[in-house]
Amino acid sequence: MPHFTSTRGDAPAPVSFEDALLHGLAPDGGLFVPETIPSLAPAGDEAESFPERSARVLTPWLAGEIAPETLRAITDDAFDFPVSLVPLADGGDGGLDGVHVLELFHGPTLSFKDFGARVMARCMSHFMQGRDEHLTILVATSGDTGSAVADGFAGQPGVEVVLLFPEGQVSPVQERQLVAQRPGVRALAVDGPFDDCQRLVKEAFQDEELSSALLLSSANSINVGRLLPQMLYYVWAAERFDDEMLFCVPSGNLGNLTAGVLAARSGLPVRRFLAAHNANDFFPRFLGGGPDEFAASERTLSNAMDVGAPSNFERLQWLLSEEELRETIWGVSVSDGATLQSMRRVYDATGYVADPHTAVGLDAVRRYRSETGDGTPTVVLSTAHPAKFPAVVEDALGFEPDAPERLAALWNEDTQSEPLAPTLRALREKLLHGA
Q1: Could you report the per-residue pLDDT of 284-323, keeping only the tens digit for each?
Q2: Looking at the annotation, which residues are catalytic?
Q3: What is the side-by-side order of every strand in the sheet holding 135-140?
Q4: Architecture of domain 81-110+225-402
């Protein structure tokens, strides 16, 4: 059974998965990482379903803490939606031959965040059974994390979810998902960018007054419990190829990319990762030999990636040396103009409608192939449904994408949100006194 330690090395003895999951951050302010990485469990037969394969992959990580039959029940319940791998062959003219889109947006909130959030909710519920404590989950979100967590945790006994999102800096559809009224969920509209939301969450975990009054945890990718389920779709996709392949990951806070690196470290045959960023280009600059200096975030069309100070960079530095990072991961920054061009180019060549985040990834593949000549089969992670960004799609393609019924129904639901100044004092008042 793996134990988890801090990236900063100043925490007490390593802890169990249960402790890492329920506490979110390590006591020294670092992020929990596994002391050892289990070898990837072998696949079953060809008929093995995604939930079945998921349970087999997670079993070595959670052995001794969650029984195999309980874990299988968790994955069956969490993954009650399809995962699609879509080829984008265009005859070679557009450079898309051998490129596949891994659609991770078929869950209840139409985002890849459903994978991690739904497994986390069920694992936390499992561990909280029989406890007298009340769990408060703090979540900073730049788009899709909050709604996935809210949906996954809503109504769980003994659990309250508090969402912090940057007011006016998420798409109207994303905001509607965030503020939809759900039992046990509060939405706080922060007067500032996502970096303020993330900073407030980290400060709250380190605040003695809050830690003495509340049992706090997080469902952001700072929580290792989010990363383990996100390994699963890398494994599922890679096992559909005969040889090594590439993964292109639209990246912001680097959690999704870190999950892929964890899968590769466990034995998944991945030749390389492409980190596709928007104008928030800290990580591509670092990979290109620049310093590891964060910058303020910039607003872009691919807003869920608007992160100037990605917290999972700390985990990647723990998992890989600086030389290994630059050998394993190739990074690029894609502007808003290039994002719109990518959406048009892909649609004209294949008829595929990509959301702006996926379009960043597709343009990254085009640039990588042009620069390196490497035509290795590539999977682009598609992280959100295009219907969540109707205005951007219409600007790029001249029409709005069809909206799934569950998305259209949001506009008939009751909503709730509360304003929040970007200070720890204001957040403390909200959490302790509800004001």
Answers
A1: 999 999 888 898 889 899 988 999 999 999 999 999 999 9
A2: 113
A3: 215-218, 135-140, 159-166, 185-190, 418-420
A4: 3-Layer(aba) Sandwich (3.40)
